[in-house]
């Protein structure tokens, strides 16, 4: 397994776990279940932890991919910038998740405020991870981004 395989394998974890963890924590709040809320927070912390090696493996993957035919350095750079922003937001969400768990365990007055901040950061993280993934898909999967325009073009040619 090389860095590209590792990166492509790891990246799915934060992309799936961040929104899943937010949903689980929201279900916990809705059902007034601290156990369910804690599960969501722990998943968010795990996703933030996995985001670190995911991001680091991206740099090594870049070294392999940038020399392949059809790989655009501009597209790779856009993906890297989006991924870095997503990483920082995911780490912030994870850190807030730790603070929320602490507040819940202590019955601190900031519990609700921290939980809201954590879930807000988690939602923003999910959006940024999705954006980074979208840009990453353009690196080696251009067919996924021309299918709509090709179909529309073919439809117009067929009408003539």
Summarize the structure in words.
- There is one protein chain.
- This protein is an all-alpha fold and 160 residues long.
- The protein has one domain.
- It contains six helices and no strands.
- The chain has helices at residues 3-10, 12-30, 34-65, 73-106, 111-140, 143-159.
- The longest helix has 34 residues, at 73-106.
- The protein is elongated and about 55 Å long.
- The chain starts with a helix and ends with a helix.
- The model has no long low-confidence stretch (mean pLDDT 87).
Strand content: under 5%
Overall SS class: mainly alpha
What's the helical proportion of residues? over 70%
Oligomer: single chain
What is the count of helical runs?
Answer: 6
Distance between the termini: 50 Å
Give the biggest beta sheet.
none
Rounded mean pLDDT is 87
List the helices and strands in order. Answer: HHHHHH
Radius of gyration computed on alpha carbons: 19 Å
Shape: elongated
Low-confidence stretches: none
For the record, the count of structural domains works out to 1
Number-wise, the strands total: 0
């Amino acid at each position: 397994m090389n860095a590209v395989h590792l990166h492509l394998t790891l990246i799915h974890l934060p992309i799936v776990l961040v929104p899943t963890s937010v949903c689980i924590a929201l279900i916990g709040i809705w059902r007034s279940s601290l156990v369910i809320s804690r599960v969501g927070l722990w998943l968010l912390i795990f996703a933030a932890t996995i985001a670190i090696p995911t991001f680091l493996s991206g740099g090594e993957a870049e070294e392999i991919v940038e020399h392949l035919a059809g790989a655009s350095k501009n597209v790779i750079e856009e993906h890297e910038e989006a991924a870095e922003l997503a990483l920082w937001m995911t780490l912030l969400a994870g850190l807030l998740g730790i603070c929320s768990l602490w507040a819940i365990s202590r019955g601190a007055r900031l519990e609700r405020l921290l939980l809201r901040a954590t879930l807000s950061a988690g939602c923003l993280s999910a959006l940024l991870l999705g954006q980074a993934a979208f840009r990453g898909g353009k690196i080696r999967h251009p067919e996924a981004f021309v299918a709509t325009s090709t179909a529309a073009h073919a439809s117009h040619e067929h009408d003539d």
